[in-house]
Amino acid sequence: MVEPAETVLDRYIGLSDRAVRESSALAELLGLFASDATVLIGPEPAHGKEAVTTFYRAHFAGIVESKHYWNTTVLEDGTVRAEWVCAARTTGNGLITVAGVEHATVDSDGLIQDLRNEFTRPPA
Fold first, then answer.
1. What's the pTM value of the predicted model, to 2 decimals?
2. Predicted pLDDT at 2
3. DSSP tag of 58
4. For 24-48, what is the mean pLDDT?
5. SnoaL-like domain location, by residue (predicted)?
6. CA–CA separation, 28 and 75 (whole Å)
7. Which terminus of the chain has fewer CB atoms gathered within 10 Å of its CB, N or C?
């Protein structure tokens, strides 16, 4: 059996669990985005390196630890799709579960140009 090649979306999701506690992993995760990338995970899109950085710093600030599981597919148009689930502990020692489907378009340098998420189980 041949293992599928790791995509940039696989690296992004894998790094997100470490990025909540390791600044080097957050820097590596942010390096996966093109300078003019757009991220639509929250209610408002973050566009450009500064806005994307601000979004992820705020997003990870409320989480102490997390664990993601996901399945990735590269669609015919080149879009990378990941169906994912996550369990996390928040800074207030709360527990959350969340799930969704992310779609990423990748530029010619292999960086994420556009990332959008649709929650199938929104954070409570």
1. 0.92
2. 44
3. H
4. 96
5. 25-113
6. 25
7. N
